[in-house]
Amino acid sequence: MTPNEEVLKKAEFDADGIIKYHWMSLILLSLFIVTIPIALILAIIFKLVLTRVIASWDCVLTTRSLNVKKGVFNKIEKTVPLEKITDLQMAQGPIMRMFDLHRISVETAGQSGPGSLISLIGIRNTEDFRREVLEQRDRMARKPANQTSAEPNDALDEIRDSMIRMERLVEKIVQQREKPD
Predict the structure, then answer these.
(1) Within a 13 Å sphere around the CA of 26, how many CA atoms are in the beta-carbon half?
(2) Do the Cβ atoms of 86 and 107 come closer than 8 Å?
(3) pTM score, whole prediction
(4) What beta strand segments (E) does the chain contain?
(5) Residues 6 or more apart from 12 whose CB is under 8 A from it?
(6) How confident is the prediction for the chain on average, in pLDDT?
(7) How far apart are CA 13 and CA 123, in angstroms?
(8) Do the beta carbons of residue 10 and residue 68 sit within 8 Å?
(9) Residue extents of the structural domains in the chain
(10) What is the fold, at CATH topology level, of the domain defined by 7-143?
């Protein structure tokens, strides 16, 4: 986040709903006799680290970008400029619906490969958060160029002026050489 960015909204995650959702998937996994050992191992892992993993999630909407931080062991930080966001897809499966959870996926222009750049589950008031991100993106698109984006134009103007001075200087030199002595 750059110093001239203002924080507009910070996403809150529904930790209880996310934990219940993961436990429900373990219950479904243990319905098959073959997968019971895997479910037991995952249950131990969930008990030890799931709350810390969720606590490490952070998603902040600023005036110019969406900043996401995740991870306890592997820390991941992603900053997506709002002008690059093409869509925020919301998904809700049947188990997620039981716990009123949504998965939100950030899709960007120039994204390589299938899937989304960022995928978050369990943001409280997901519809409102999605709407605010998209509205801020649209405001950025309508806003006239600010000083930071005008700087390249200033540089181009300086180059143009310098080229004009160089042309005049070359013309003077050519005229002086053409004059008979």
Answers:
(1) 17
(2) yes
(3) 0.69
(4) 7-10, 58-62, 65-70, 76-81, 85-91, 103-108, 118-121
(5) 123, 124, 125
(6) 86
(7) 4
(8) no
(9) 7-143, 146-181
(10) PH-domain like (2.30.29)
